Amino acid sequence: MTSTDLETISFESRAATFGALSDPIRLSILDQLHRDQRCVCELQEALDIAPNLLSYHLRILREAGLVASTRRGRWVDYRLADDAATTVRSALPAPLIDEVRR
Looking at the whole model, is its pTM more than 0.85? Predict the structure, then answer.
């Protein structure tokens, strides 16, 4: 990724990525999804939070481009987005990206 690529990413988009990463519950969700795709019911059980709160956090992660979902009948499975790592790297300021590459 070049600094020109970074210029095309809006500050709002970069801030949304950091905002999505700034909550301990959302980090726990990402940790669960790093291991494998999970059904909402499995996430609910592992995280022990209210269903509406889990839905809220999953929406924030989806809007930030960090997770993707697939409907399976009445269930929804979540997984890390294919480009989640790129999304996080692209949110970093250019000098930090150079450090990450080293």
Answer: no
